[in-house]
Amino acid sequence: MTEESTIDVKINFNHLITEEKNKHTVYCTKCPSKILPSTMGKYLSIEFNLPHMSQKKNCEAVECELLTDYWMVPDMYMFDNIGFSKTVESGIKYLICADCEIGPIGWYDDNTKQSYVALSRVKHAEDS
Ligand SMILES: [Zn+2]
Predict the structure, then answer these.
(1) Residues 67-86, mean pLDDT to the nearest whole number
(2) Which UniProt keyword terms apply here (predicted)?
């Protein structure tokens, strides 16, 4: 059953992927902030538990969502705009919108210096 749902997700995101890269520019879902230029992220299927978006900061119970589809960005300077949360654990930081601070939209691994942006947490649009 797990495999089937993974395949479904891949089909859903296929129109966003060209040669394993992001076909479109990546934007914040809540504001006009441009996050990542097209073709800068590499599609990667990896399991990561990401907390739900925009939880209250003082909320103790952090509910997570298992997401499997990410844009892997090898260098943080490839982003147009990105913000980082405080370090969560062992070098992991969450990615947030640099302008409206909504997030997490992905995570950053300080050990590998690679960032992962969840496809389902951002907006994809043609270059304007
Ligand atoms: Zn934003």
Answers:
(1) 96
(2) Guanine-nucleotide releasing factor, Protein transport, Transport
